[in-house]
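TASK: fixed-backbone design
INPUT:
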């Protein structure tokens, strides 16, 4: 479907999504639909298990519950509309809807960064200073960490969403991407976007890099403490308590860093779309899968729940 560009002020975008043959789009629709169903089911089960099982009422699972909420928000913000574009190519989207999608995607990403950072701090206290764990990680501290993670996610996103909503969009209204993100929006704007581009770079340091560095430093301390444990069983047990978190952090930051460092135009556009798909569609599914497969307490809670049913 060919869409012409003109110089009038635009009120809606044409989100191209994934361009391919009809048979490919149908196959992707089925695959993404199944993935999305499992994402919703997996994260919802994690949340229900943690809320309903007294054994899982611990700080680590408290954070995991909110991590699943973040994954639900991230996936549900993009995937339903992506499925629609696979069935009907070049589906129009109001500018306000596109900006809203960008806002919630940005907010959930930032919140997840801080939640993963809080989880690494929890594992640090549990392994490095276990005698003070219950004193440090009390309900007040947990509530503050989670509240700040969500609040900062939604508040910091406003520093980007407000100037984006004030941009003028004219000319070509085609967004050749799978969802509304900052780079595609800036590309179709006829306003001066220099300040907004600089702002996004400056804010990415405290939002993404500092939490990531905190996680790395935390795990260096954790590994150092684990290696000092005298018995092999003790080292294995200590490491098992944080192995799932390490995998989730690696997947999350790996796809996120690749997403924002890969060029979003030219011959690398398809690569950027692929990375975005991994981040939006598959990462929220991997998190509950990792924790359910590698965490004995989660497996026991699932077995008990299935047995009761």
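OUTPUT:
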């Amino acid at each position: 479907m060919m869409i012409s560009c003109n110089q009038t002020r635009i009120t809606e975008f044409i989100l191209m999504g994934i361009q391919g043959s009809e048979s490919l789009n149908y196959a992707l629709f089925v695959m993404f639909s199944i993935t999305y169903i499992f994402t919703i089911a997996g994260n919802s089960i994690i949340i229900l298990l943690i809320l309903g099982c007294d054994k899982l009422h611990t700080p680590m699972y408290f954070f995991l519950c909110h991590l699943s909420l973040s994954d639900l928000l991230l996936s549900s913000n993009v995937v339903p509309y992506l499925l629609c574009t696979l069935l009907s190519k070049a589906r129009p989207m109001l500018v306000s809807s596109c900006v809203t999608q960008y806002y919630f995607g940005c907010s959930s990403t930032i919140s997840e960064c801080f939640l993963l950072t809080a989880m690494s701090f929890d594992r640090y206290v549990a392994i490095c200073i276990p005698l003070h764990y219950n004193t440090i990680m009390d309900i007040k501290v947990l509530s503050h960490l989670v509240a700040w993670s969500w609040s900062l996610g939604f508040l910091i996103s406003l520093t980007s969403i407000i100037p984006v909503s004030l941009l003028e969009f004219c000319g070509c209204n085609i967004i050749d991407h799978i969802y509304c993100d900052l780079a595609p929006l800036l590309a179709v704007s006829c306003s001066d976007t220099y300040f907004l581009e600089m702002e996004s770079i400056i804010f990415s340091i405290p939002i993404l890099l500092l939490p990531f560095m905190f996680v790395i430093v935390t795990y260096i301390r954790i590994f150092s403490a684990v290696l000092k444990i005298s018995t092999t069983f003790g080292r294995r047990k200590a490491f098992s308590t944080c192995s799932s978190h390490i995998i989730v952090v690696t997947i999350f930051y790996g796809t996120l860093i690749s997403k924002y460092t890969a060029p979003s135009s030219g011959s690398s556009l398809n690569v950027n779309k692929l990375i975005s798909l991994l981040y939006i569609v598959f990462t929220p599914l991997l998190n509950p899968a990792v924790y359910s497969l590698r965490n004995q307490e989660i497996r026991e809670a699932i077995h008990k729940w299935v047995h009761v049913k």
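COMMENT: The first helix runs from residue 22 to 52.
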